[in-house]
From TrEMBL:
This is TPR-like protein. The keyword Repeat applies. The lineage of its organism: Eukaryota, Fungi, Dikarya, Ascomycota, Pezizomycotina. Gene3D superfamilies: Tetratricopeptide repeat domain. Keywords: mRNA processing, mRNA splicing, Nucleus, Repeat. It comes from the Eukaryota. It comes from Amniculicola lignicola CBS 123094. The keyword Membrane does not apply.
Amino acid sequence: MDPIAVEVEGVGHVGYHVPTLVLGRGAIAQLTYTGDDADAPEIKKLIDAVAGNEDDFDNWTALITKVSELEGGVTRNSSPAAIDIFRAANDLFLTKFPRLYVYWAKYANVEFSIGGTETAEMVWERAVSAVPANPELWAQYCQFKETTCHNVPVTRELYERGAAIVGLDFWSDKFWDPYLDFEKRFGNASTVTRLQARISALWLYAYRRYYDAFVQTAIHSRDLDELLSPVELAENQRIVMSKYEALPEPTDIELDREMRAQISRYYAELGHKCHLEVTKRWSFEEKIKRQWFEVSEVPEEELVNWRKYLQFEEIEGDFKRIVYLYERCLTICASYDEFWLRYARWMTAMGKEEDVRNIYRTACTIYVPIGRPTVRLNWARFEESVGNLDTARDIHLSILEALPTNIETMVSLAGQLRRDQGIAAAVSWLERCKSTVSHGDAGRLIAEQARIHWQGAGDVEAARQVFKKNRLSFCNSAAFAINYLRFEMKQPRNNEAHDHIREVHDLLREMGALPVHLLKYLSHEYMEYLLDCGGKDAMKEYIELDKQVNGPYSVQTGLKRKVAEDGDVQTTDRRLVASNGHPGVEVNEAEFRRGVDPYARYYTEQGQDPANQGLI
């Protein structure tokens, strides 16, 4: 959840100690228990534990268990304080972890014992909204409705809602079985037959059980209009009647016999099709060991399987099946940005703007922590792409409200400002941001200002001036240094360009306080430039630089000059001789006696592998 607390419609119950339940990170701190003094200290301790680390699942479950057991188990006869704390804790818990369908079912069942049918149904509705792709949860909700509601059409309508959502699930026999039982108890033979016919065409793991029961009992005994939909019935009648075009018109008995034979052939083909489709999907389904959301990481082999399964259905091309598989995947993998992004991108390709928006909204307001801004930034770019510039800006600003030093978001908003308002607005925004971040990150923002001038406006000289103006202050910023050198290396090849590159490289080596391994990296990039683009004297410079960068410490005069107080190589050599007895590598006698090779340490500090030097 975003750290900005939000009020959720339809969540509150009359009698809460907190009159308006506000949900979101930090909201648990508002929770208090005013009941039995014997339980109050423990509950406060559990609340404090959750508030101290809201991502710790065990702390939450300990709190939920405790509030559920108050006064021997919360019921309608419990004190108002116990009921309030039970409801509030569950609301906060299931806002934090909304995919936990088992806890939704527990909450609804206890709520039924507290407030009766109406309040329990509110919880069930929230449950199937939070975990829509769960046949078992829908079955439990429908069975609750069946038990508490004596209006058969109303209950049937709920079953149909569930069927429209989870009916395609590979394991939806958990839903279809209670639906069939319901129709057998409260419907009639006709509705049962129609439901059996409908299920027999679905690609379920248990398809054969439904198929055999339907074919063996219904095809030769039930009315034809119960066996097929009107469209299917008309098509099969056309096939049968085409046989009699050159023959006398059949009697009613002959026509009935022919029609049932044709329907048998039709369902035989349908059964064969089901078998093939179920077999194709079984290779993916058998690898899905986790069927519901857990806070622990999904095993990598299952993530790989989900990627392959989604790709398979995308290639198959059935829109409803693809959407449902994404929903099912995200029931299990809700914590993984990649699947939210994949779903949104696929839906974008389908041209469903509002569906894309709903995917991003669901991901960002419930499942993806704001500490991982990638999905939110993609949402902002999507909104910008459809012309909602204010919404895109607000998404950026909401991230920065929670993560005020997030460089990626600052740069992304600068890009939007450049596209919408021009170069000056983007550069001005980054200038304001510089004062809010560390020195190293400010160097990155300066490099971004230069990049906007260069690539956004095509003004190379303006970009160069931005770098030059800040080079002495930020030459020890890794992002600034890398971008400065690369900027000059990407300019058109000529002698003047080479002079600019050499100037930047020498500045970074002599004036910057960058780590040795980064200096080596930058020098190697420059050396590659000399090999690929240098003139006739380039190899002299290359060999000298190779000695300074890759040679033994004793010949790295540039580094020795840099660390000397007076800039003299001899000064560094004299200091090393005085302290170590030789001018090469600094040796710690205690470490040497323990067997630590000083040369191995030297090569490690230089960013090299001691093993490649024959020392290990």
